[in-house]
Here is the input.
Amino acid sequence: MKKLNAKSTIMLFLTALIWGLAFVAQSVGMDYIEPFTFTCVRSIIGGFVLIPCIWFLNRMDTKNKKTEKKKMTTEEKKQLLIGGICCGLALGIASNFQQFGVKYTTVGKAGFITALYIVLVPICGIFLKKKVEARIWISVIIAVVGLYLLCITESFSIGKGDFLVLLCAFCFTIHILVIDYFSPRVVDAVMLSCIQFFTAGLFSAVFMFLFEHPAVENIIAAAGPLLYAGVLSSGVAYTLQVVAQKDADPTVASLILSLESVFSVLAGWVILGQALSVKELVGCALMFGAIILAQISQRSVEESK
Here is the structure.
């Protein structure tokens, strides 16, 4: 088992912090532009940011090995392109559900409900004939109770934004499973991510031009949130995660990364003043507990094989 060093720990905490704060950027961005426009511009920015990252990582890899990196074969390029497009479509759908949801719910709720995909992934694994242990089912029950306390109002209805973010969590589950399928089949994970960002951006652009009225002046007005979501959340955070997990135990790494939901709540409270009630805080705590239990459980099953 790999030991997590201080450098990797800091990188993973920064990744979780960046992702958590991104919910604030998404919420603020809705004051200037519409959801499809935000996702489109954000994704394209993320794709362009990863281009120099790919060059730098390839250069470092070549330098460490003291030999020229082997060129990809035609089949490897094909797998990379197909994988990037499939991941990008899943990411585009999930991101747009999330962006619409953030428009109608609080940053804290969006962060925690999105994190529900960590529980949903092993559940979906049942249909792929993967073993699911008892603690996963306990995680699901805890998460459902937490989701109820967090989202259900006195009239026993889920808010529009909460429902959209819940759909986003299901879509991110599909996204993770698609990545799980293609990642072992491609030779460059960062390049895969770059392709998926451009695909998600182009996918969102179609709906942006069909249903919205993007204006350059409004996009410029939303430059701050867009640059944060595109450069930091998509480009920098993803690269930090990739570099850090080379020297990190996956169990510890995943637990640190799941702190993005906590940071989203804190960011919504400190920056946007979106306070949560005691009932909602209990719901957040239960969901976070379910996330930790599911992660430990899923990793233990994988490592025992």
